[in-house]
Design a protein that fits this description.
By secondary structure, the chain is of the alpha/beta class. It has helices spanning 13-23, 37-53, 70-74, 87-102, 115-127, 166-170, 177-184, 199-209, 212-217, 219-222, 230-239, 241-251, 263-266, 273-283, 287-295; strands spanning 6-12, 57-61, 106-108, 131-136, 151-154, 159-162. The chain has a six-stranded mixed beta sheet with strand order 3-2-1-4-5-6, with helices on both faces.
Length: 297
């Protein structure tokens, strides 16, 4: 990563909140008897990350558009396979955002754009201001946002994927990830893709043609490729062309969310330790977790 550039860290909060909810014991409650296990785990993640990295520029993106994303307008079954988060988890998302803001960190959410889109927008605008981008997430979809000098970092598992390493990891270039997902589908998000075309076949097609648009623009050539079942693949592409193009509208991360994304917006703010202590007490975080957070101010 180029040392000449400033570095901004963009956190996909949902990944770390969900992990904490399902891994931290559900016996942790605040004074009102509300569950705070996800908050506790997320606070630990934040404290550890801030202590290790001490970033000057940082933003945390939250999901609020589980059923109201612009993608639901395009394709109503989008993410319809997912269970609605229980109320105690929804409540903890709000607690986590309160903590993020109390620590002087920028927090972003939208009822139309998902956290991925907010991260994509921030990355696009800040890169234009000579920032390199580090995205904290375990979501492979976000690899499509990387450019030279950027990094996708699954912090909890310490798995780092540089822009240059995306082909070794996924089999396609970073800029081809959205097209690749449109061909293969994405079961996690209930995006069907093209039946019978798996990751390796999709990667081979993109290696040959570069983009989804070029694949369909050269469909007559597919049967001639040195590809197992090339004629069958050509037939599948022809039959499911519309479905793949629809999927591409869903797999691409938006970079034009209506959010304020300037340098000042993502610079860490100085906050008073007393204010952080009071917020932690209100949220129900114990002395040990509070002390860890105070150390990283």
């Amino acid at each position: 990563m180029a040392d000449s550039k400033r570095r901004v860290y963009l956190v996909d909060a949902s990944i770390y909140i969900f992990r904490a909810y399902y891994s931290v014991p559900d016996t942790l409650e605040n004074a009102d008897g509300q569950l705070i296990n996800a908050l506790h785990g997320f606070a630990g993640f934040l404290a550890g990350f801030l202590e290790q990295v001490s970033p000057e520029y940082l933003a945390v993106a939250f999901d609020e558009s589980l059923t109201t994303s612009f993608r639901n307008d395009i394709y109503p079954p989008y993410k319809a396979n997912r269970e609605t988060p229980p109320e105690e988890l929804k409540r903890q998302f709000a607690f986590c955002r309160t903590l993020v803001e109390a620590l002087g960190l920028a927090a972003y959410s939208s009822d139309r754009f998902e956290a991925d889109d907010l991260i994509g927008t921030l990355a696009e605008r800040l890169r234009a201001r000579d920032f390199s981008v580090v995205i904290l997430s375990a979501d492979k979809d976000l690899a499509q946002l990387l450019e030279p000098g950027d990094l996708l970092w699954d912090y909890s598992r310490n798995r780092r994927h540089h822009y240059e390493g995306i082909p070794d990891w996924l089999g396609v270039q970073a800029g081809q990830v959205a097209d690749w997902l449109a061909l293969t589908g994405d079961a996690v998000d209930n995006i069907p893709g093209i039946p019978g075309i798996g990751p390796k076949t999709a990667a081979a097609l993109l290696e040959e043609f570069g983009t989804l648009e070029n694949i369909f623009g050269n469909l007559e050539r597919v049967a001639e490729l040195q590809l197992r079942g090339a004629k069958r693949v050509q037939g599948l592409l022809s039959e499911h062309r519309d479905a793949a193009l629809l999927a591409r509208q869903l797999t691409g991360i938006a970079r034009d969310a209506d959010v304020s994304a300037g340098v000042r917006d993502v610079r860490r703010r100085a906050v008073a330790g007393q204010d952080v202590s009071e917020t932690c007490a209100q949220l129900g975080l114990g002395r040990m977790t509070t002390a860890k957070l105070l150390r990283v101010l």
